[in-house]
Amino acid sequence: MDKVLVLGATGGIGGEVARQLAAGGWQVIALTRDVEKARRQSGDFIWVQGDAMNRADVLAAASGCSVIVHGVNPPGYRRWAELVLPMIDNSIAAAIAEGSTIVLPGTVYNYGPDAFPLVDEDAPQHPQTRKGAIRVEMERRLLDASQHGARVLIVRAGDFFGARAANSWFSQGLVKPGKPVGTVSYPGAPGVAHQWAYLPDVARTMVQLLERREGLPPFARFHLAGHVDADGTQMVEAIRRVVARRTGAQPRVGNFPWWLLKMAAPFIVTFRELQEMRYLWQTPLLLNNHRLLQTLGNEPHTPLDEAVEATLVGMGNLPLLHDPAQNGTNRIKAPTTR
Fold it and tell me: CDD domains given for it (predicted)?
């Protein structure tokens, strides 16, 4: 049985990858600071108490693991410069010690305007933000690790959305979790394309690539196309369609209050960090998935309305459907492919 260590299994992408690997027969070791709380969230993993900032904890948890999923991030963008690089260094140390493959969910923060608008895996990484510079340094260290006994798999996607993608623009910007959807606030400039990635599709892509990891280069990077909103209206309209069909309500469309973030940024760290990433809503940046299609033949892809409905149900914006025959949202489905 394959054995995997997941850092960040209580979070969005880490948890989704862990669940899919466990369903596929992997033995999942999940590192967490609060084992009892984590067990209440999911009982499918072997929970191990420890901290991703503690190298000894990571090394011990990774013993015998052929894969390490590095899905951990400081919450709310806080203390990035202080925490992000030490955590990846601990995962790298464990991967070199075990000869493991590190899986990293990549971001678009790495790129600057010289790589826009269509970005492939080998595009230059010249970021214009602090978080982007940190992400570039993470990948540089991973490249070095791939030359010293570890293997690396980076899967880069657009903005996450999904039932468990709590720290996302969908749940922090477009709609308010736990409430009926009265208004959809869109952060983007009119007519500017934006790329979204449904969390279960991203995780399924990672799992499928892991199944082929022996045939991949020691340092492998892939981009997902996900859901491309060509003009900034398609995600909003999908939310409105789903809400109208389920409740009869017709949500309004509003502008995201960037002015409020700017005013509060000096006092609230998360707002300051979100303000720094505004350029991604003003400039089209699309990831080219040609390499992924060559490797897998297709990209896991859940239809947009289905993905949006599952997200809104999971976030508490829509009630559960008690009769699965009415709609397939509450049943676990394999995504379509393209």
Answer: SDR_a3 (cd05229)
Query: Please, are residues 152 and 210 in contact by the beta-carbon 8 Å criterion?
Result: no
The residue with greater pLDDT, 65 or 274, is: 65
| pLDDT over 90 (residue 291) | yes
**What is the 3-class SS of 66-94, one letter each residue?**
CEEEECCCCHHHCCHHHHHHHHHHHHHHH
- Distance CA(252)–CA(271), nearest Å, equals 24
pLDDT of 285 above 60: yes
What does the alpha-carbon distance between residue 239 and residue 219 come to, in Å, rounded to a whole number?
38
- Residue 277 tokens, joined: 């990433």
Residue with token string 């799992």: 207
What does the alpha-carbon distance between residue 253 and residue 186 come to, in Å, rounded to a whole number?
Answer: 7
Of the listed ranges 72-76, 80-84, 165-169, 257-261, the one predicted with least confidence:
72-76
- CB-CB contact of 29 with 49 (8 Å): no
Give the domains, in start order, of the chain with CATH numbers. 3-160+196-226 (3.40.50.720), 162-194+228-284+293-319 (no CATH)
Cβ neighbours of residue 36 under 8 Å, at least 6 residues apart?
Answer: none
Length of the chain as a residue count: 338
